What does this fold into?
Amino acid sequence: MPTVTSKLTIQPASARETIAMPEPQIAAFSVEKAYRKGEHLVPVLHGVDISIRKGEFLSIVGQSGSGKSTLLHLLGLLDSPDVGEVQLEGQRIDDLPARTRDELRNRVFGFVFQFYHLLPELSLMENVLSPLMIRHSIWGYWKRRKEYQERAREMIDRVGLGHRLTHRPSELSGGEMQRAAIARSLVAHPEILLADEPTGNLDARTGREIIDLLAKLNEQERLTIVMVTHDQAIAAEAHRTVKLCEGRIVPLSDAA
Amino acid sequence: MYKLLLCQRYLRTRYIALASIISVTLGVATMIVVNAVMAGFSSEMRMRIQGILSDIIIETRNYDGELNAELHKRVIQKLIGEYVAGVTTTVEVYGMLSFEYGGQYIHHPVTLIGIDPGSKSEVGPLVDYLQSYHQQENGDEKTPAERSLSQKPDWSLTSAATEYRQRLAQLANDKAQFLKELKQQQHGGGDEVPGSGDDPFKGVEATEYQPAAATSLGEVQTARLYVGSNLISFPHKDESNQMRTIYMVRPGNDVRVSTVTAGTPAPAYFNATIVDVFKSGMSEYDSNLVFCNLEHLQEVRKMIRTDEDGNESRAITSVQIKLKDYRDADKVMAILRNEFPADRYTVRTWEQKQGPLLAAVDVESSILNILLFLIITVAGFGILAIFFMIVVEKTRDIGILKALGASSNGVMSIFLSYGLSLGMVGSGVGVIAGLLFVRYINQIEKVITYVTGRKVFDEKIYYFKEIPTHVDPLTICWVALGAIMIAVLASVLPARRAARLQPVRALRYE
It folds into this structure.
């Protein structure tokens, strides 16, 4: 039994089973989510339970429309569940005020997206610095800009883009953009990295490089990584794989 | 920090934003130029009105006036002497100006004002409006000033006018001589002039010829006049297509002035010699006013009473007072109103006397400002549309920012500060452009005239050598602030829309 200290009194039985020791860093309990499309309510998740330990490298696989990205968004507070809850180190976080959730997104989570999502107006360096700029006021950032720039350069060096600091995203290749996005997600020292199809838009070799980079980060920094992918080969790099099918977690053997 | 950075990058990379900046710039510049020119015209006009009317005018309610001009002056000096810079008494009455031109008699209804030029010039810049004090331009012709500005205005003729009068006399003399010779020839030579045999008016009794106006011959009249320029001139385009002012009569000519006597109105007329032409630039005055020597007008209108002791008392219809500082007007007005009973006198400042005209100008100016501000509002709607476009275009970026932890307020402030910067840049450039335009307005007018071949600003119409402008810093501040406010207001809606975007939806947006 995990020592969940939340206000939650009734814990779903399924949750108790899936939660492994030691205590999960982030977990979702019977989350349900539906999207409104025109007049119809399209259910995406039907009561999903998932928990991820600190330092774990988890991959979520499933077909398009299985709800894997939605689950990732719920974990990363980009969206809130209709039913169920999301907990971070035992604390419920999905019902926090918007301000606090913004702050958690900035401090705890790092995001990597399939389409990189770099800001086209900013240089590589500025893109990487953006989470720190968002975190601090003008004055607060200005005072420590040297330190932050140093940190950003370090991250950029680590992803192997030290020679392209002033380039705009449009001047980078797909793999470079994804590496820049990873540098950006790491610069604020997040605890959990959420990657949504990080290799989905890259060729096999570049995709492999990105996965290697993530695996290395996981290993060296003990960074918790949750990665969504539809590629079984990529998913196999993770410690553990969870399969989603039509909004439910299904045994992995079904994938075959 | 990211707000500033992004706002600055959006400014630099979105050329569509330039359209909003230009529209704000144009609106602000137009407002500044129009305001400056209108204020210029208005202050010039006020200056001229005040120049002619002086600061405070006490008028009698009837045309007979009040006796004892000197007493009036003394009372005023005693009451408000400390505030007064100059006092003059005048007689104002309606009249008729008649003169001969081109074989016809021309009559103009006029306001006849009897003045003492010496004291009149103390209550207003009389010399500014008398043509003999200034260089005259008529088409290509330039004549130098005939009097120096240091000379006080009086009723003497200039040497040019005297010469002109002599020439007239000479011409008349020559003509008479010629006619006499012709007559002698006809009678002496015996040749009958053809057609003279059957004169249809033969036998009709000849009546004595009574000219309707003076002849400008003989001695200079004791009555002297400054005549409003529009009364005795008209503009004419000559063969070379140049505008010239044709004077029907000029200084040195005699004219006839008709008016009515005081008491029971009876026609009274007298011949007078024009001494100078009065031109203020205010068409209302220039086509209406005739100044005459006060003593003569009082005499003709029988406004002089002599008591048993032989003391003379002259009547006046108005007293004009020039104050040392016009800001004291309210105080002085209160004192004067108390002293001069309302049933016999009206006491008014020049602004009150010309109230309707000044009010009309004010109304005109404020309506124009409202209309122009609407133009800036149109620019505001342009900003609104452009911003909505930018928000739609940047939807994904907004999603990214939110995913990275940017708050809704943070995202909103990006677009608000974007609007603020557009407004500030637009109105800043607008203020500079407007001020430059005002500064070089006459040069610009010349260029436009040259390019279009049409005179934009015809000094003949406005009587200004240059376009008058007056820049009011407060107006500029208001215009600039208003434009900035409109730009910010216009960006509120798009900014709110951006702030309310759900990060997931924004990220999915392609």
